[in-house]
Amino acid sequence: MTRFRFAPIPAALPATVPFTGPEALERRRGAPFRARLGANENGFGPSPQAVAAMARAVAEAWKYGDPDSHDLRHALAAHHGVGPENIMVGEGIDGLLGLLVRLMVAPGEVVVSSDGAYPTFNYHVAGFGGRLVKVPYRDDAEDPEALAAAAHRHGARLVYLANPDNPMGSWHPGRRIEAMLDALPETSLLVLDEAYAEFAPADAIPRIDAEDGRVIRFRTFSKAHAMAGARIGYAIGPAELIAGFDRIRNHFGIGRIAQAGALAALGDADWLAHVLAETAAARARIAAIARENGLAALPSATNFVAIDCGRDGAFARALLEALAQEGIFVRMPGVAPMDRCIRVSCGPEPEMAALAEALPRALGALC
């Protein structure tokens, strides 16, 4: 006889998680991957200044991290030209998305997203009992107008949009995002995921006042700053909304080491420029590898490239598995028609060379 009972909402959920980590895949295959190109991590590494700051902070790991993230919050506010009351630091965008859903969505209330968009957001909506309504991508990109229309039809509490987008790497000009805000119903809050903003063209970033009550924006140190393992991200939004996070967040969720590293990374503009240049070169390298093998790379404003395999989802999945047999970890979109693609993260040249060597063999194994 069991002595525990799940609450009704989690009891009704499937026993799944949004992603299977590369470590779990390595354990299954009994060997490490030669190229880790599936999780959109930044293999060019964090700023040396951030590494040094984190190393210094290790000696103080016996202390809890500052629950207010005071120094980092104020630095981020200065960086973005907003007040510190407009910034909330959290355990990556993933953690902050979960807090936002918990804060804003009652069981049964509608949340609108795109079919095939970042699945962790959907995971949180389901976990807190929200009702998810999805609209299709259009031309391999999220469709702001369709999202706004669905929000009107269903009275959505939240509307999720990533710009640039994961998993396709596509992006919209900032003015289109601004127009979307004007098109949303008064009951809806836009959840604007800007995890890849540093890689995007300047005109992709909308001009939005931090006190605009129609939107909350999310940024991260996981991508351009190469601190995915530190789990640190932040939200930018109206002070009243940001203050609401204090009601439910884990106040000691961000450790001292992560805070020290993020603060140093934010101040190292030269290293960020280096990473952006290396990423652009890797995007071009991935596109060239795709062309050499009769495949097509989609335009990308991120640190990954979606490669159109020219067939259907079954073929793309078979290619993904064939690459895994070659020791190359990549992922793919999960929804048609985007699932005709595989998604390859940018990485240092040795990993790009491993991809170039393995891809022809993987394709050959499918013929």
Structural overview:
The chain is α/β, with parallel strands linked by helices. Helix content is 41%, strand content 14%. The strands form three sheets. The protein has a seven-stranded mixed beta sheet with strand order 2-8-7-6-5-3-4, with helices on both faces. A three-stranded antiparallel beta sheet has the order 9-10-12. Helix 6 links the parallel strand 3 (110-114) and strand 4. Helix 11 (269-292) runs parallel beside helix 13. The longest helix has 24 residues, at 269-292.
Q: Descriptors for this entry?
A:
367 residues; alpha/beta; three-stranded antiparallel sheet; 13 helices; globular
Task: Tell me the β content.
Answer: 5-15%
Class by alpha and beta content? alpha/beta
- Strands ordered across the widest β-sheet: 2-8-7-6-5-3-4
Tally of individual helices: 13
The radius of gyration is: 21 Å
Average of pLDDT: 97
Amino-to-carboxy terminus distance:
53 Å
Shape: globular
How is the main sheet built?
7 strands, mixed
